[in-house]
Design brief:
By secondary structure, this protein is an alpha/beta fold. The protein has a single domain, classed as Rossmann fold (3-Layer(aba) Sandwich). It is about 35% helix and about 20% strand. The protein contains ten helices and 13 strands. Strands 8-7-6-9-10-13-12 form a seven-stranded mixed sheet. β3 and β4 form a beta hairpin. The longest helix is centred in the C-terminal third of the chain and has 21 residues. The radius of gyration is 19 Å and the shape is globular. The relative contact order is 0.14.
Length: about 325
């Protein structure tokens, strides 16, 4: 498939409920960010035919971009995020097998080396999987999770770190995650907060009067979750959120931008303590989920929302505040 084929536009129905009732809220070039009129999910349509194709570049391209990190000569700008996320998981389940889905070059898993888990990754890019094995000695299989051939109940922890927003149809992935996860296992997901991106898009467009601005990274981020749609999507596939917190923002760019993100996170933490929700200043959403008794359907989830609260939410429909809203920053920090 050529580059032109990868960038061909395709129109898609909602990847959660299959409805075709989108309302466009934003755009990035020819790509539309829309809200489903039925289930309220934010997703991209039209989108590129192969939005993840650029991850299958050449080895030379990857080494040019990440060589210093792979060789240990520089830190990754997401290391503080990885350290925080691993710290949360270590407190909840300090031993067992940790399966990372969408490992890329192993940057997240490399921070878990020396902890008590057995580490395994799956990565669809052959170059990414190869580099993770070569530079970090990690057990990374070159496959989609659905094609990796892992047995039932294989993993005690499954992680999707900055990955779930790349998945065009969660209905293809989540049943396999549930199958390979042990009955007492934990699923960890971190995604950008769709509410934050929408707020930032509208603010910049209005304040700066710009017609073209790239906020959603829609060329590769094809679904944009808010806490409500993330919770519902997981519930429909047999998962219940037990912990939700505002993670550290990913830091890059100018110092003033980094400082603003930290201020925004501070406000977002206060909002979560007061309301239990993820407002427009939370850059990302991090959740830990466990298997629930049975998988539901979109109709079941909607009915449940109308008649009673989900087990992990109060009757107001907002997420229950938890101690995770006050997750401390890791003791050891590396500058990006």
């Amino acid at each position: 498939m050529t580059v032109a084929d990868h960038r061909a536009l395709v129109y898609v129905a909602c990847p959660r409920c299959d409805a075709d009732r989108p309302t466009r809220l934003a755009h990035e070039g020819p790509l539309g960010i829309v809200r489903c009129g039925r289930c309220r999910l934010l997703y991209v349509t039209p989108r590129f035919a192969e939005p993840q194709a650029h991850y299958h570049g050449t080895r030379e391209d990857v080494l040019r971009k990440y060589g210093a990190v792979l060789r240990g000569e520089a830190a990754h700008n997401r290391d503080p995020n990885y350290e925080q996320e691993l710290g949360v998981l270590r407190r909840l389940k300090p031993t067992g097998r940790l399966l990372d889905v969408g490992t890329h070059c192993g940057f997240f898993l490399r921070k878990a080396r020396g902890m008590a888990w057995q580490l395994v990754g799956v990565e669809p890019s052959p170059i990414g999987a190869e580099l993770a094995r070569e530079f970090y000695g990690l057990d990374v299989r070159n496959a989609l999770l659905q094609d990796a051939g892992l047995p039932d109940g294989y993993a005690d922890i499954v992680t999707l770190v900055d990955v779930f927003e790349h998945v065009a149809d969660p209905r293809d992935l989540l049943p396999e995650v549930r199958r390979v996860l042990a009955d007492d296992g934990l699923l960890f997901i971190k995604v950008p907060n769709g509410r934050y991106n929408l707020f930032k898009y509208r603010l910049i467009c209005k304040a700066m009067r710009l017609r073209e601005v790239e906020i959603f990274d829609a060329k590769e981020h094809v679904v944009h979750y808010e806490i409500e749609t993330l919770r519902a999507t997981l519930r429909e596939h047999g998962f219940r959120i037990t912990l939700a917190f505002v993670p550290l923002p990913i830091q890059d760019g100018a110092a003033w931008k980094c400082a603003l993100r930290l201020v925004a996170r501070g406000i977002a933490l206060v909002q979560q303590r007061l309301t239990g929700g993820f407002g427009p200043l939370a850059t990302d959403i991090a959740v830990v989920a466990e298997k629930s008794g049975a998988r539901g359907t979109l109709g079941d989830a909607r009915a449940a929302g109308q008649t009673r609260a989900a087990p992990d939410a109060p009757t107001t429909g907002k997420a229950r505040p938890t101690a995770a809203a006050e997750v401390p920053r890791p003791a050891e920090r590396r500058s990006p």
